[in-house]
Design a protein that fits this description.
The structure holds 2 protein chains of 2 kinds. Chain A is an alpha+beta fold. Chain A has 17 helices and 13 strands. In chain A, the strands form 2 sheets. Chain A has a 6-stranded mixed beta barrel with strand order 3-4-9-6-8-7. Chain B contains 7 helices and 10 strands. In chain B, strand 7, helix 6 and strand 8 form a beta-alpha-beta unit. Classes of the chains: A alpha+beta, B alpha/beta. Bound molecules: adenosine-5'-diphosphate and magnesium ion.
């Protein structure tokens, strides 16, 4: 018995870190004893955490993509489109009628004269036509533009060059293809140096350029962007000098369809106002809007301000995140209640064990720690599983549906710490109930 | 402790239970002194207050009035934490239904009191193994309680009660659930402990224990009816 006496001298040390580790092991053991029950208990937390991370990732991906596209439009730009007024369309469905609408050269002149801090005003004309290379063809938008257009729209030249001011002034029949169109019309040969046909006119290809993002008023809306990259949905474009477009296509565009004839006169389809100082964008857009509304009787134009869209996208994202946060909070609370429920049952079931431990010297604090550790293990493991699934799911979404997802580094951390906290909070009540049992009563419990 | 003649002393201890409007005087003024090394059997008819008395002696409960001195300290006024401390360091419990923790094996069960005293894992393992061997369970160290017979389970209970080297060992009908053969073996183990100088207080219906014990306290209706020392 001498060696025992020697060992006992170390006894009075308080239960420290090593003791805590042993309690954790015991906790794992008793949870492992009821593996199925533990697993079911923790499912609420698992799905809560997992859905939070996955949803955040999808939202983040969608809004990132939307913002990326808006940025491509140029945050210093104000874009004006010509839009066919809705009531004119009804008139046009009668017999033959010439519709006159849209941005005019006069509008351009007015902007130039009224607004001082505008660096460039780029008029553009867009005609929908079929473009041919021998037997290959594609329906495209023919854009009559100016030489500095790519720079304004953040377009990247992939091959060759854009047309020059000289070519512009001499109304040269040269063209630059957007990248999808080049692929379609020239699947085998390099496009540069070849000719493409539009109607009866031939244009020499001098360059290939990246596909531009479509500017629509719906851009600030994440939900509408979710269904895929709009790059793939955008119509391919053929860029020609504005002057060439004017002389080849004239002012009047005629389209025949099933007996009736429809003609429209549009001077300019698109116009971009680049504001030098980004802080003045909103103010300038108001002036442009004012100019248009004063001079156009009908609403035959549409104003798109990428900067505003960007702000709108950010607001939408904020709302999205708030809603997500609420859903997350609810699901985690539900998960926490599930854990509390099972822990209360577990405390009742183990009343006898609690009595035994108390008789053998366990203080109330020791019992509290034991049960708290079990709930924290439960919710912590649930959190870890949830984080794992929550990171995997976005990966598979991107893999199989082409939808962009971004798992920000903080979302798993937050989700996990919330789940662990939930365990702690919802574990307190069952643990206190266990600790406040009368030892004698607990020992008599059957 | 040498200057204190009694290891445990009850002075006019009462215990009253309140159940709604009814009050029940389970113990009505008990005075008992326990000397070191005594082997005491508490006997009496069912419901006379034996378990209540043992729970008071074991610091699982506090008396309604009176004083209880254990090892020189007044425990009747102690708070819950202090009582837990006393139970863990000075007392060893043996129960009628063994009360082993089902998910723990033999050594782990014996280690529990050491754990709450903060003894490091390796040391408690060594001590628990020694005690398991002492009660003859050296070859069952890693068995779970349900794999053991009643007699073996009670041996684990005894080893667990001894492992903290307590001042007093308390047992409530320790042979109540055992067949006579296992019961006799357990009683032999108690005799051995008594010879080794342990102080033991035992509640029992078993006249055999009554004969082996050095002193028999008979209770009736919450009072000491007789207090006899054998030889
Ligand atoms: N927690 C309690 N609440 C109310 N009455 C109790 C309680 N514990 C014991 N009693 C009563 O006290 C008396 C003594 O009980 P006990 O000490 O268990 O008797 P026994 O001698 O059979 O062990 C009995 O009448 C019992 O009903
Ligand atoms: Mg009893």
């Amino acid at each position: 018995m001498d060696d025992l006496a020697r060992h006992r001298t170390a006894r009075r040390a308080r239960i420290g870190f090593a003791g805590l580790w042993r309690t954790i092991k015991v906790g794992f053991k008793s949870l492992w004893l009821h593996r199925l029950r533990s697993l079911l208990t923790v499912l609420g937390i698992v799905f809560g955490v997992c859905s939070v991370i996955a949803m955040l990732a999808v939202g983040e991906g969608a809004s990132h993509e939307a913002q990326e596209q808006i940025r491509k439009l140029g945050s210093n730009n104000i874009i004006v489109h010509s839009v066919k007024p809705t009531d004119e369309q009804k008139v046009g469905s009668q017999q033959s009628y010439v519709i006159e609408y849209g941005i005019t050269y006069l509008d351009v002149e007015r902007i130039r004269q009224t607004i001082p801090d505008v660096t460039v005003v780029v008029p553009g004309r867009i005609i929908r036509e079929r473009v041919w290379n021998a037997t290959q063809h594609i329906d495209a938008e023919i854009a009559g533009t100016v030489p500095w257009y790519p720079e304004l729209r953040n377009l990247v030249l992939l091959e060759g060059r854009y047309f020059t001011e000289v070519e512009m002034n001499s109304r040269k029949n040269v063209c630059v293809l957007s990248e999808p169109m080049a692929r379609r019309l020239f699947p085998l040969t390099p496009p540069i140096g070849n000719n493409v046909r539009v109607g009866s006119d031939y244009y020499k290809v001098i360059g290939v350029i990246s596909q531009e993002a479509v500017a629509t008023a719906a851009m600030g809306n994440i939900a509408k962007q979710e269904n895929g990259r709009s790059n793939s949905a955008a119509t391919p474009r053929l860029y020609i000098p504005l002057t060439a477009a004017k002389s080849r296509f004239g002012e009047i565009l005629v389209r025949r369809s099933s007996g009736s004839m429809e003609a429209e006169t549009v001077e300019l389809h698109e116009l971009i106002v680049q504001v030098h100082n980004q802080n003045a964008v909103e103010e300038t857009s108001k002036i442009v809007e004012e100019l248009f509304s004063r001079n156009h009787k009908k609403k035959d134009y549409e104003l798109i301000v990428p900067l505003e869209l960007l702000r709108q996208a950010e607001r939408t994202k904020q709302i999205f995140n708030t809603v997500l946060g609420a859903i997350a909070a609810i699901s985690l609370i539900v998960g926490g209640i599930g854990i509390m429920n099972i822990m209360l049952a577990s405390v009742t079931e183990r009343t006898r064990e609690i009595g035994i431990r108390r008789a053998l010297g366990a203080k109330r604090r020791d019992i509290v720690i034991q049960f708290l550790i079990e709930t924290v293990i439960l919710s912590g493991c649930g959190g870890i599983i949830g984080v794992g699934l929550g990171v995997l799911i976005p990966y598979f979404i991107t893999r199989f549906s082409e939808m962009a997802t971004i798992v920000t580094f903080w979302s798993p951390i937050i989700a996990f710490s919330i789940s662990a906290t939930v365990g702690l909070v919802f574990g307190i009540y069952p643990a206190l109930r266990a600790a406040n049992m009368d030892p004698v009563e607990a020992l008599r419990h059957e | 402790m040498t200057d204190v003649p009694y290891i445990a002393a009850l002075e006019e201890v009462t215990k009253t239970y309140h159940m709604g409007t009814v009050t029940l005087n389970a113990l009505q003024g008990i005075t008992v002194n326990v000397e070191p090394g005594e082997y005491i059997a508490i006997m009496g008819p069912s419901g006379c207050g034996k378990s209540t008395l043992l729970n008071l002696l074991g610091c699982l409960d506090r008396p309604s009035s009176g004083r209880y001195l254990l090892g020189g300290d007044d425990v009747s006024m102690m708070d819950d934490d202090e009582l837990s401390e006393i139970r863990g360091t000075r007392l060893g419990f043996i129960f009628q239904s063994y009360n082993l923790i089902q998910q723990l094996n033999v050594v782990e069960n014996i280690e529990v009191p050491l754990y709450y005293q903060g003894l490091p894992a390796e040391e408690s393992r060594i001590i628990a193994t020694v005690f398991a061997e002492r009660v003859g369970l050296g070859d069952r160290l890693y068995h779970k309680p349900f794999e053991l017979s009643g007699g073996q389970q009670q041996r684990v209970g005894i080893a667990r009660a001894l492992v903290n080297d307590p001042l007093v060992i308390l047992a409530d009908e320790p042979t109540g659930n055992l067949d006579s053969h296992s019961g006799t073996e357990i009683l032999a183990l108690f005799d051995e402990l008594h010879r080794a100088g342990k102080t033991m207080i035992m509640v029992t219906h078993d006249d055999d224990i009554g004969r082996r014990a050095q002193r028999v306290i008979r209770l009736r209706d919450g009072r000491v009816e007789e207090d006899i020392r054998n030889g």
